[in-house]
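User: Hello, can you help with two protein structures?

Assistant: Certainly.
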Amino acid sequence: MNFRSMDEFWGFYMSQHSKPWTRRWHFVGTLLSLVTLLYALCFNWWVLSLVPVIGYGFAWYSHFFVERNVPATFGHPVWSLLCDYKMFGLMLTGGMDKEIKRLGKRPVLQTY
């Protein structure tokens, strides 16, 4: 599916993260991957290879076993990464519930 804007993709992305535990697993993966990135940059460059393994590992687990769908990153890797950081920021600042309510009031594109 082609998306015309980041906002349009965001609605789809959030529809693929509808369960709270999916979002929580993403949060943990993003947090640990950022900590690993910081460690790699400061102490050991070899650890850098673990950053995507950690981040995607937690996220993909949540898609396969919690949400039971295919990760959006398979079809839209860049937009998915940007949306993951947006979701992380909203969760970190407590704005995720408000965003879920906002998105619930508009149609979400479906993929078949």
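That covers the first. Now for the second protein you mentioned:
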Amino acid sequence: MSGSALPPFDPYDPLGIDDLLSDEDRAVRETVRNWAADRVLPYVADWYESGELPVIRELARELGAIGALGMSLTGYGCAGASNVQYGLACLELEAADSGIRSLVSVQGSLAMYAIHRFGSEEQRQEWLPRMASGEVIGCFGLTEPDVGSDPAGMRTYAKRDGDDWVLNGRKMWITNGSVAGVAVVWARTDDGIRGFVVPTDAPGFSAPEIKHKWSLRASVTSELVLDDVRLPAGAVLPEGAGLKGPLSCLSHARYGIVWGAMGAARSSFVSALEYSKTREQFGRPIGGFQLTQAKLADMAVELHKGILLAHHLGQRMDAGRLRPEQVSFGKLNNVREAIEICRTSRTILGANGISLEYPVMRHATNLESVLTYEGTVEMHQLVLGKALTGLDAFR
């Protein structure tokens, strides 16, 4: 080894993390990266500025065609990819835009995962193949207007009426809601919390879109309104009783965020790095000044530590050893650091950092939503605090 040449230093992979990936991992990553470069990056600034995602149905079908919907699930038309590969896909999607990764996460890690894990065989056969192909978009109804971090306090109620169920209530901040063909809705019953598979054409169901957002603007966000929605007995998720059902779905989705946040951070870091080498002040590129180099070095350290953390959690998930507390660890760290990377990148770009000609401000505002959804900072701190001390500080 003393005479062997070291590989060159790669500023875009300074720790050589690619060495941890298999050829198949890299192929999955390149497929998603190329799709995003072709179908999202040329248009996403306009979608963000207009606050619309007008081609969401087309994008869903294309994502289905490359195997990105429910990709870590097996059977029913799903790709059966590893969780590391799913994570790499999330990173590449969020490097394009958090809204696109949210579309995929809600479809696969929430709606499809709930049906796959807790549904009946009839429900799986009816919905999963069409959701995997992108023919049907799904959404996941848990959060309510007055109930966020404490889902046990939900007010949506399902009452038995003969063999049927009748649902009444509201759900809020639901990604994909107004374009979904099926909603997985969680409701209180006389026997506790249960999950229901709700076709969105059911009478009494509506999903008005939420406008005037300053974050996740290239994403469809809706309220779900359930007014005497009548469902047959077969609409109940047979294995989805209690809070364990929705919380396990959220843990699956949070895992994708651990990777995805690093995609937004990478995009912002690369923009700042490239800008620093061409923007001149005081007669030379700003990348040649010590303070700028300190910012770039600190960002690179946190970015690639976060990617290493995501990869480690993915390996644990593939081995069946990933605990929810470890997902909280990753979500808390990576989203928090990703926002800081975006903000620091903005300072390097100066005034240009607020322009949609660059992705930095778009990523920063998107991550403000990512910081909150799937568990706020405070909730993940308390999850870890309880795990560390054995003492419950939630109540």
